[in-house]
Amino acid sequence: MAGCDMPVIINSGSGNQGIASSVPVIVYAREKFLPAEKLYRALAFSGLLTVHQKEYIGKLSAFCGAVSASCAAGAAITYLDGGTLDQIKATIDNTLANIPGIICDGAKASCAAKIATSLDAAMLAHNLAMADRSYGAHNGILREDADETISCVGHIGRDGMRETDREIIRLMLQ
Description:
Helices cover about 65% and strands about 0% of the residues. With about 170 residues, it is an all-alpha fold.
């Protein structure tokens, strides 16, 4: 979490995002005794969805990458649970409607708490989606299409948080 020398899988250049996008999926699949092939598909889906979200946000942003990675893990868990495409979309929407405002102020020990918070939100989003509950389109930043919602979040992370990033850096250097 804070730059230790232990090996970890990375996603989008971040060990924290690698952990958040993979470990919950692995644990969920093992607890449900799911076949290895389904786990591998879910891991690929989670990893690719994390990368896809980061494409919109950019390499460095004040937007916490644990949100994107946890959103992807939640969507992959919905897949593992036999969720439909609509339920997977709802998991993405429910997560991004809930916690898009967590800021990144550098890799450090409190990232573990941000990952836990984001994963808790993703599991809430998953449970709501599996009960066919989701926030509607145009509820805040949500759009009809999940990719459009991801694009809106990316715009906030890339452009909207530019000044936030400057302010965080200023405060960290004081």
